[in-house]
Amino acid sequence: MAGRQSAGILLHRDGAGGVEVLLGHMGGPFWATKDAGAWSLPKGEYDDAETPEDAARREFTEELGLPVPDGDLVELGTVRQSGGKTVTAWALRGDLDPAAVVPGTFALEWPPRSGRLQEFPEVDRVEWFPLDVAREKIVKAQAAFLDRLAATLSPPPE
């Protein structure tokens, strides 16, 4: 596999002020006090034995503890994050209650070099955001997915 690759689903719905997207705040001690740039669409890594779409569906369920809502996935393409990871995403119109989320967990040695493994949630909270607010919250490279989503939802020019 050439580099780390990740896939995810950007859930969106019509809110009172326009389109809203579901983002998760990254869990673990590094992200605890960060807000801007610390939110992501539900996503995760996969290897060549799995298709990106299958990985996106699996990771959505693993990270949020909820099934992927029914509906058609709309491809949003790929971005490369600053750490070099490639992320492929799909948009999906759907709804879910953030209070129903039961996040998956990961183990991390914390504090560093302590020899103690601690469990942390993959996401420590999940919220719906209007697109303009989501642009401030989301990992910088993933903002391209918000622009691509907006482009798929706008009517074609006359």
TrEMBL record:
Q: Please verify whether the record's keywords include Nucleotide-binding.
A: no
Domain named Nudix hydrolase: residues: 2-151
Single GO BP term: AMP biosynthetic process
Q: Which UniProt keywords apply?
A: Hydrolase
Question: Which chain regions cross the lipid bilayer?
Answer: none
Molecular function terms, GO-annotated: bis(5'-nucleosyl)-tetraphosphatase (asymmetrical) activity
Name the InterPro entries on file: Nudix_hydrolase, NUDIX_hydrolase-like_dom_sf, NUDIX_hydrolase_CS, NUDIX_hydrolase_dom, Nudix_hydrolase_domain
- Family classification: Belongs to the Nudix hydrolase family.
**Which protein, by its recorded name, is this?**
NUDIX domain-containing protein
The species is Jiangella ureilytica
